[in-house]
Amino acid sequence: MNLDWLDAFLIFGAFKVVEIMGLGLLVHLQLGLTRVANFGVVGFWGVGLYAFGVAYLKVDWPFGDVYQFLVCAAIATIVAAAAGLVVGWLISDLDDDGTLVGTLGFATIVVILATTQQGLTGGALGLGGLDFPYDFGRVKTHEFTWLLITTAVVALIFAYAWRVYRTPHGRLLIAVGSNEALARSLGKSATAARLRMMMVTSGAMGLLGAMHGVMVRSLEINSLDVSVTLAALAALILGGTARVFGAVVGVLLTVALFDIVIQFYIPIPDGWNTQALPVAREAVFGAAIVLMLIFRPQGLLGQMRRPALMRRLHGDW
Amino acid sequence: MREQAVVNSDGASVTPAVAVSGLSSGYGSVAVLYDVEFTVGHEIFAVLGANGAGKTTLLTTLAGLLPAFSGSISYHGTDVTHLAASESARLGVGYVPQEASVFPDLSVLENLTVGGMIGTRPHDERLEEVFETFPDLRTKLHLRAGNLSGGESRMVACGRALMQDPTVLLLDEPTAGLSPLYLELFFEKVAEIHRTRGVSIVLTEQNATQALGIADRVMVLSLGVGSEPMSADAVTTDLLREGYQI
User: Considering the domain boundaries, does residue A302 fall inside one?
Assistant: First the structure.
């Protein structure tokens, strides 16, 4: 595959867009559907990244690239899902403020562990040696292929989010999110439904973390940055927390704008890309969250379910 | 808990649908109900009282959404005092709260179907029965429940509780804030639900006149203390004045 026409940085920009879109969709399921205000997205993502990296680099696996990736990615997903289950249980009786603090605290613990457990994680120096589970010869081809694979994974997350609205489990989650006390009187455990959702979404965040590790081919403590959470939340709040397409639209208007459009297609002075732009990006994301919450809290796409969708969902009824 | 029983129309002693004994409950460390005691058979049992009497606290506790400080609650002889609300629901307890009684982001149809997540009878059969009781809902199925009027919301909430195939229905001031048109309709519907479905109903109300019109027995709750339950026919204006403290 001849990819000379494609800028390597553009592949990374697109990867970031796809990755944050995936995280945004998962936050949509937590915040928009179930009303769990997870401010520790980077924690679950980071658990996946580091579980994958440690499993990949520290265990002497008796099989080759593809199986090694699959097993390590499965470990990352399971560890992140288990973290989601534990954190979800710990915050199950807390209000929104408590949930925000609890999840933020979890993300902080992950960063501290990744920094201090140097024997496993490499600490502040990080660890290199992660690699793609295939070998086509050229690095750019590897990265482009990985972008396509990650896009397929995010498409599956989108399909899951799209589908869950049409299932009894999804309706129960909406019920739990909008009125937990009333939902408890329906004969189903609201806590169990919420924990299941936390487990599934946290596991998927961990998988995206593992896929990030492969793309950057290293474990870097700097990647466990609040900007991951901020980007996912800003995109979702801008697009609309309660709509599946909210994360998609939001990411296109935020991450894609900065990491692709401005970075590659707007002539900006040298040096801005590495210094001024990242700072401006965070500031704009933060401002977007504040402005949207004040002036249009339901986001650009509006409320959760509109009559057209309901008619479609109900079919013959 | 002492043995409790109610007498049915044939004079036989049967296990009550609801038995509440020495029930105290409240919020945090603040008690709102004190030593409430009553049984409910196959009947409409009205709990009357002024604002702040503890009616909502009583029903919330009966639904399992608020823990009891002391005392016991049982449904058809099964002690549910320490069971979660979801467990009580599976035992056949339907609950319609006074406020926030529907899931606003779900459509009317979805509000009804989430009520039918438990039970074994086919959904469609149960839905048809709900539409027989509340025919107006049939034309509003696609509407977002959050956009309904107060009366329509109560119908959806009652319909959702009926989808659970309850044997006991807890209705917390179902007519509060409704227009006179809906008010009359609702009391008729409550009586119809009891008559046609054989559901025991515990109903809290401020509107004593209307409630007495459909109730078999009544308890007046005053500042968290319940009166001795009595036949609805035996309730006098003086008794109500005393209970309502007016």
Answer: no
